[in-house]
Amino acid sequence: MASTLYIGLMSGTSLDGVDGVLADFSGRGIRTLDAAFTPFPADLRAELMALQAAGANELEREALAANALARCYAECVKTLAAPGPVRAVAVHGQTIRHRPELGFTRQTNNPALLAELAGIDVIADFRSRDVAAGGQGAPLVPAFHEARFGKRNQVRVVVNIGGIGNISVLHGDGRVTGYDTGPGNVLMDLWIARHQGKAYDQDGAWAATGTVDAPLLDLLLDEPYFRQPPPKSTGRDLFHADWLDAKLARRPGVSPADVQATLTRLTAVTIARAIQAEADAQAVYVCGGGAYNGVLLRDLADALGGTIPVASTDTLGVAPNRVEALAFAWLGYRFLRRQPGNLPAVTGAAGPRILGALYPA
Ligand SMILES: Nc1ncnc2c1ncn2[C@@H]1O[C@H](COP(=O)(O)OP(=O)(O)O)[C@@H](O)[C@H]1O
Ligand SMILES: [Mg+2]
To answer: Which of 16, 66, 135, 144 has the CA that lies 20 to 30 A from 152?
Structure first.
């Protein structure tokens, strides 16, 4: 019998590194057997950041970055302790351009090299087929959120706060809606990196020393993306340093700590508004690195009016930093069974599609 063990690898917009999980999809539900995080070496992180925008000799630089990424992915795979042969590694790759409106999204990777190094079947490039079918290619996690966290007759919202934020609204009747809400941690990360040289604001400690600047918050909220109807998805293509600097130029003199508090509030308010526009949620579950930011979670609960319980996905049995990698393991499992992975109601694709491409071991 074929192995039911799958590895999922996710490296998102934050560019912090790769999260890996080893999952078992035997008949007894979705079980996580092991998890690992392999940080990107500083030079790879810098190059991936640079590749987010147009630059010289991009083809060669992207190819070399892809090789370095594949080695990093292989290292992550090696640290996962599998009790038996692994059926496949499902790997997201690193988004360096996301332009569904132009008909492409690019997740840099070298899946052939990963298959070579890991000696395991590799499934990669999950987003392109949805884009080819006219979809956004994102978010792809809602189908998994429904499979793992959905509950009949209960409206649950799963919020993933990575670099970008996205919501999955599980309506309790099989319907799932969702989209990218806008910045998750990406702006907070770049602001604290600029002022304190840190990768992120641990538990929102710096934001907690500041006060939200209401006029700046209004300026930040005045962004067409927030008003655009779904389906929609976004990334660093829109929410980058220049976007933030242009806003700050119109509201000079706000202290760096107050800016951090305001950016934290921006993420919370845009997510809360998206949730409220979609449904009367009964419970909200947060995953992604943002789930470890207590100030952000408190802001989110406040922005929702203080009436909807906000918890991390830990309460549903999956650690917040494992959810996305687990989702990709699940998408790999779907691929090998020739089952669709996208939700047309979420991505806007013409129909359900089998997502991914296989690189045999
Ligand atoms: N303890 C923490 N306190 C505050 N923020 C955190 C913490 N841990 C992680 N994060 C945030 O989560 C981000 C990583 O989240 P992740 O889900 O990996 O996003 P992505 O999928 O975009 O890589 C970090 O860049 C940071 O902003
Ligand atoms: Mg990450």
So the answer is: 135
Q: Whose CA is nearest to atom 13 of ligand 1?
A: 289
Q: Enumerate the CATH 3.30.420.40 domain ranges in the chain, comma separated.
A: 5-139+321-359, 142-308
Q: Tens of pLDDT along 186-196?
A: 999 999 999 99
- Neighbouring CB atoms inside 10 A of 28's CB total 8
Q: For residue 188, give the ligand 1 atom closest to its CA.
A: 27
Q: In the structure, what pLDDT confidence band is assigned to residue 171 with cuts at 50, 70 and 90?
A: very high
Mean pLDDT of 269-287: 96
H/E element, 188: helix 186-196
Classify domain 142-308 by CATH architecture: 2-Layer Sandwich (3.30)
Residue 29: pLDDT band with limits 50, 70, 90: confident
Q: Which CATH class is domain 5-139+321-359?
A: alpha beta
Residue from 145, 177, 18, 34 nearest 92 by CA: 18
Residue 297 Ramachandran class (φ > 0 left, ψ -120 to 50 alpha, else beta): alpha
Q: What are 284's strand-pairing partners? A: 157, 310
> Best of 52, 293, 318, 328 to mutate for ligand 1, by most ligand atoms within 8 A of CB?
293
pLDDT > 90: percent of the chain: 98
